[in-house]
Write a structure and sequence with these properties.
Elements lengths: L1 H10 L4 H20 L2 E9 L3 E2 L2 E2 L6 E9 L4 E12 L2 E16 L2 E11 L8 E10 L2 E8 L6 E10 L2 E10 L3 E12 L2 E12 L9 E11 L1
Antiparallel strand pairs: 1-4, 1-14, 2-3, 4-5, 5-6, 6-7, 7-8, 8-9, 9-10, 10-11, 11-12, 12-13, 13-14
């Protein structure tokens, strides 16, 4: 509509001042959106890639990283990737988007959708819709598996402790198993060093599954 208005004034002989004002207005609108949008990146190296209590790299090291775009209105979009062991696939690629914001002081919400893909092994791909609430460090998450996929629910708590944060979580992965994670994230300069212990109790409905527990460490940085 704005383009049509500019064109109309131009063909009707209005002076160039009108066009300059319109173009300046467009530039200011675009600039306001750009200034409200932030782009961040992250990279991490871990001794193991543990997800919901299950190793995704057969106990080997994992190198991961991603990018996030966040708009000032709460909308976000991101991508994340890591080496993985998923049948014939050696890479996991995640794409996600959502909306987050504050409900009150120290109370937030996060609603989104994620697609997890394994190039070379399409049968392992899955998608989830999720919703999470955080109340004074207590985080409650529910992920609904799409296309009859299993759901996942988790409760976690994080509290500042010294130069870092202590955290603990418990999650139930439908038809897979339950997991507990205890960790400490230590902030050292621009890096975060994490120390974690996990315990996984396998569900008997998963053929070939097994209980597992152990520890792993990671070092990460955000930009």
């Amino acid at each position: 509509m704005l383009n049509a208005l500019i064109f109309y004034k131009f063909i009707n002989g209005d002076d160039m001042k009108t066009i300059k004002i319109a173009l300046t207005s467009i530039f200011l609108v675009i600039s306001s959106y750009a200034s409200a949008t932030t782009i961040s990146a992250n990279v991490a190296l871990s001794s193991d890639y543990i997800w919901r209590g299950i190793t995704q790299t057969s106990g080997d090291m994992a190198l991961s990283g991603g990018f996030d775009l966040e708009a000032g209105n709460g909308f976000y979009f991101g991508t994340w990737a890591s080496n993985a062991s998923a049948g014939s696939a050696s890479l996991e690629l995640d794409l996600y988007l959502g909306f987050s914001g504050d409900m009150a002081e120290n109370m937030t919400y996060d609603i989104g959708y994620i697609s997890v893909m394994y190039p070379g092994n399409d049968a392992a791909d899955f998608e989830e819709a999720y919703i999470a609430f955080n109340f004074y460090g207590l985080n409650i998450l529910y992920s609904d598996g799409q296309n009859d996929g299993p759901s996942y629910s988790e409760i976690a708590y994080s509290v500042d402790a010294g130069p870092g944060a202590f955290n603990i979580s418990y999650g139930e992965y439908e038809d897979n198993g339950d997991n507990t994670l205890i960790g400490y994230d230590w902030n050292v300069s621009d890096f975060t060093i994490g120390f974690y212990y996990y315990d996984y109790e396998d569900d008997a409905t998963v053929a070939g599954g097994a209980d597992d527990d152990g520890g792993y460490v990671s070092i990460s940085r955000s930009f």
